[in-house]
Design goal:
four-stranded antiparallel β-sheet; 39% helix; 472 residues; alpha/beta
């Protein structure tokens, strides 16, 4: 029987309290797919509330696609969990904390600022499940057919429309390649471009791209960045023919590559045959101040930019669909060389996502997520500024993306602070952790605060824990 402590409900109504508790148990996995719930009357009697109160809570859960009812049999947890486990996100995969102890056997963290998780309650379960049913009900035999290396035409068309409307990119569906996460796209690029190529990566930066190239036999060289982006002078000296950059919002520093540096980078690409830029636009949707910045691809006139983005940050990390836009001159050669592969994303997922985009649901979801994260960021920064943390550190690069930097003042040992924060249940990384070759003095005093996976109602407790350690 479901038990709820109404003494902790605060200003919520009884219906809201029941709804929230049951939803949390479904998302957390304690209530499993197709498990039968108590009847309205039985639960009302158990909780000491009216049958109407329980009925309203159940109806809200049904509307969101988390419950379903069978006449004369009762209420059950929706089997959307089972469907989504085939590769699209399941509720249990949305948790902002690990499901089990970490490698050292310690308990999960109260707050994990290293996680790229998204808030589980913000995934549009109801809309997504409705779209899935619409795709299945269409009885389209193409769901059972193999799709080539590029992915389904429907999804590639939807991506092109999305890029045209939101990133001012005029590309054709022939240029778009759908992949099961950016990792699979990087691996395909190595095979397409050749393992003899030298790849330059931003230092500090996102290590996974360089590691994938290295494990596939390519040479990877780190190149310093400054306040304007990657150093083109050092890039020229590196001997690299390919460079991986995130110009719209660099990870982890949060800086934005200015327009002059972008032009200089494009000029570098034009300086010798076979040079290409891999543009990672991973969280460009979450810019909170000013207009969205143009992509390198949109100002590239000579076909040197390979654009990559993912649905992981806007939907869920477990949503393994990413895409790449190749220069038009390379699209045919890519299909010719790697066309024997099948697209690693199932046709059903591709058709569902295409319809989700075409119906305008994806745009509305992004707008909701942008507002949610803006509010979460504001709450977190306000809590920082109103606590003793403000006496000991400052916040930088908070106007875009889902992370910012917290720099502590002289007199504080950042590595010791990290140890103490971890002991207090706060997991966080130093900026120096993202430099190639180990420690770097430039990042020893700054923390990377990735806030996408924390819960808004936990912000106060998070800051109190951090304050008690940092400024006793």
């Amino acid at each position: 029987m479901i038990t709820i402590d109404f003494g902790q409900r605060g200003t919520r109504t009884l219906t809201e309290c029941i709804y929230g508790s049951v939803k949390q148990q479904i998302l957390g996995g304690s209530l499993r797919s197709n498990e039968k719930l108590p009847s309205k009357r039985a639960l009302a009697l158990h909780l000491g509330v009216s049958v109407l109160t329980v009925q309203n809570a159940y109806q809200q859960l049904i509307d969101e696609g988390l419950l379903y009812s069978i006449e004369k049999k009762g209420f059950f947890v929706s089997d959307i969990v089972r469907h989504l486990n085939s590769g699209t996100p399941s509720p249990a995969q949305f948790s902002s904390r690990p499901a089990a102890a970490d490698r050292g056997g310690s308990p999960p963290f109260f707050a994990d600022f290293t996680s790229n998780a998204v808030s589980p309650e913000k995934f549009p379960f109801s809309l997504w499940s409705r779209t899935m049913r619409q795709v299945l009900n269409a009885n389209d035999e193409r769901l059972l057919l193999r799709t080539d290396i590029r992915g389904s035409r429907e999804l590639r068309r939807a991506i092109c429309r999305h890029l045209r409307e939101f990133r001012n990119m005029d590309v054709s569906e022939e240029q778009v390649i759908v992949g099961a996460g950016t990792e699979s796209l990087y691996s395909m690029l190595v095979q397409f471009l050749g393992r003899d190529k030298v790849l330059a990566v931003e230092n500090p930066g996102y290590h996974k791209a360089g590691e994938i190239f290295r494990l596939n036999g390519s040479t990877c060289i780190p190149v310093r960045i400054d306040s304007r982006g990657i150093s083109v002078e050092e890039l020229e000296q590196s001997g690299a023919s390919i460079v991986h950059v995130s110009p719209s919002h660099h990870f982890p520093t949060g800086i934005t590559m200015d327009f002059r540096r972008r032009l200089a980078l494009l000029e570098w690409a034009s300086g010798a045959p076979g040079r290409y830029i891999i543009e990672d636009d991973y969280d460009s949707e979450f810019r909170f101040a000013g207009k969205p910045l143009p992509t390198l691809q949109s100002i590239d006139r000579e076909g040197h930019v390979m654009y990559i983005n993912t649905f992981s940050k806007t939907l869920s990390p477990s949503f393994r669909i990413s895409y790449m836009v190749l220069p038009a001159a390379l699209a045919g050669a890519f299909s010719g060389k790697l066309g024997f592969y099948s697209c690693p994303v199932s046709s059903f997922e591709q058709f569902t996502l295409a319809r989700f985009i075409d119906d305008g649901n994806y745009e509305r979801h992004i707008n909701k997520m942008k507002n949610f994260y803006r509010s979460l960021r504001n709450n977190l920064i306000t809590a920082f500024c109103n606590s003793r943390l403000s006496e000991c550190g400052t916040i930088h690069e908070e106007n875009a993306g889902l992370h910012f930097l917290l720099t502590v003042k002289k007199g504080y040992d950042a590595r010791e602070l990290r140890r103490l924060w971890r002991a207090a249940g706060i997991n966080i990384q130093l900026l120096s952790d993202f430099y190639y070759g180990g420690r770097d003095a430039e990042g020893e005093d700054s923390f990377v605060v990735n806030y996408s996976g924390i819960k808004r109602d936990a912000v106060g407790q998070i800051v109190r824990r951090m304050s008690s350690v940092l400024c006793p």
